[in-house]
């Protein structure tokens, strides 16, 4: 059986290639993708070979993609937790029509009411769960989400569900700020507007937000967060700050004011058992699915376009040229079956 996958063959050049699909081993399952979601920030960074990326460290070719949903179409002889036809979350598989995974690493979607298009966002949403959980927000604390890309839009909703009041946001893009207000943000600012820091403080009672999820990965945005955050506030670094191009006075903004900076890379999460602020991937997937089923987490507003994987070259060529890519680009693998 043949399949397809997306690969960055060189800097700025994405290609859809054909491949042979292997058979699963005794403890493995073969998964067929329904949808995979483009993580625009991370994939663009690798596509254009920014510092501190896998492509920068290991070179090309590079296979992008880590978030999707699909079905089990074959299972090894020792697999007992999954069966053919089960709907599942696909993680760390690349943008591929088919993926081989250890059966024990795969989470089944138990609720038949959840649509596969929504389920495809579970893995990338889990990053935002981690970024918010690490702040250990208490009911009634104020929160700021800096950056309204896909992770930021999820973080906004999760912080609100965690009891943060008010939750405010920042982003340069007026369309993203409008979406944030529609999803419940109390205020939305552009980081380049006049008196930005003072406006953020005013929107949170004068003291600044107690908790900040920094999603942009911009050192300048982190500097701003350190200026507007409340005394003894907490900042989780969810965005990847790949380029340290802004000097920060750590005594003035961190040490003296008792600010906590916490790295929130997904590789820091618990592996086996969830703990406060450190839930496992599977527990966050389950939480995501429950919230989607209950109508408490909005997905469809994040989707910019759904395209065939055959459009990969053009999609990534466009991503390479823009610093503010569309929110949610989804590959529909049924279009090339």
What does this structure look like?
- 47% of the residues are buried.
- Strands 3, 4, 5, 6, 13 and 14 form a six-stranded mixed β-sheet that branches.
- The protein has helices spanning 40-47, 54-58, 116-119, 122-133, 150-161, 174-182, 196-203, 219-228, 250-255, 281-293, 312-321, and strands at residues 2-10, 13-20, 28-38, 67-75, 87-91, 98-102, 143-146, 167-170, 187-189, 211-214, 234-237, 260-263, 303-307, 328-332.
- It is 29% helix and 24% strand.
- The protein folds into two domains: 2-121 and 299-336, Quinone Oxidoreductase, Chain A, domain 1; 125-268, Rossmann fold (3-Layer(aba) Sandwich).
- It has 337 residues and is of the alpha/beta class.
- The longest helix is centred in the C-terminal third of the chain and has 13 residues, at 281-293.
Question: Short summary of the structure?
Answer:
The protein has 337 residues and is α/β, with parallel strands linked by helices. It is 29% helix and 24% strand. It has two domains: 2-121 and 299-336, Quinone Oxidoreductase, Chain A, domain 1 (Alpha-Beta Complex), CATH 3.90.180.10; 125-268, Rossmann fold (3-Layer(aba) Sandwich).
CATH architecture of the largest domain: Alpha-Beta Complex
What series of H and E elements makes up the topology? EEEHHEEEHHEHEHEHEHEHEHEHE
Low-confidence stretches: none
Helix content: 25-40%
The CA-CA distance between the termini, in Å, is 11 Å
Coarse morphology: globular
Q: What's the level 1 CATH class of the largest domain?
A: Alpha Beta
- If you consult CATH, what is the topology of the largest domain? Quinone Oxidoreductase, Chain A, domain 1
Number of strands: 14
């Amino acid at each position: 059986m043949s399949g397809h996958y997306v690969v960055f063959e060189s800097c700025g050049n994405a290609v859809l290639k054909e491949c042979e699909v292997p058979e699963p081993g005794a403890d493995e399952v073969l998964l067929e993708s329904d949808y995979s979601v483009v993580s625009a920030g991370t994939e663009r960074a690798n596509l254009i070979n920014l510092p501190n990326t896998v492509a920068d460290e290991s070179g090309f070719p590079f296979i992008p993609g880590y978030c999707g949903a699909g079905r089990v179409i074959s299972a090894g002889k020792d697999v007992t937790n999954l069966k053919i036809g089960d709907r599942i979350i696909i993680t760390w598989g690349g943008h591929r029509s088919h993926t081989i995974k250890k059966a024990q690493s795969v989470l089944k979607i138990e609720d038949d009411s959840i649509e596969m298009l929504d389920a495809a966002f579970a893995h990338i949403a889990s990053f935002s769960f981690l970024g918010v959980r690490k702040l250990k927000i208490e009911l009634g604390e104020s929160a700021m989400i800096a950056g309204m890309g896909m992770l930021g839009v999820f973080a906004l909703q999760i912080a609100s569900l965690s009891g943060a009041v008010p939750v405010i946001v920042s982003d340069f893009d007026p369309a993203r700020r409008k979406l944030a207000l529609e999803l419940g943000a109390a205020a939305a600012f552009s980081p380049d507007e006049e008196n930005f820091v003072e406006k953020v403080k005013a929107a949170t009672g004068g003291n600044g937000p107690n908790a900040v999820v920094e999603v942009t990965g911009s050192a300048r945005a982190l500097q701003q967060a350190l200026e507007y955050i409340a005394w003894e506030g907490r900042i989780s670094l969810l965005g990847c700050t790949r380029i340290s191009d802004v000097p920060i006075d750590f005594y003035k903004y961190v040490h003296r004011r008792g600010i906590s900076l916490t790295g929130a890379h997904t590789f820091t999460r618990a592996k086996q058992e969830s703990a406060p602020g450190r839930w496992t991937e599977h527990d966050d997937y389950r939480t995501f699915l429950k919230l989607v089923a209950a109508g408490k987490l909005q997905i469809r507003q994040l989707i910019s376009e759904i395209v065939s994987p055959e459009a990969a070259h053009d999609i990534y060529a466009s991503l390479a040229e823009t610093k503010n890519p569309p929110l949610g680009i989804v590959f529909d693998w049924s279009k090339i079956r």
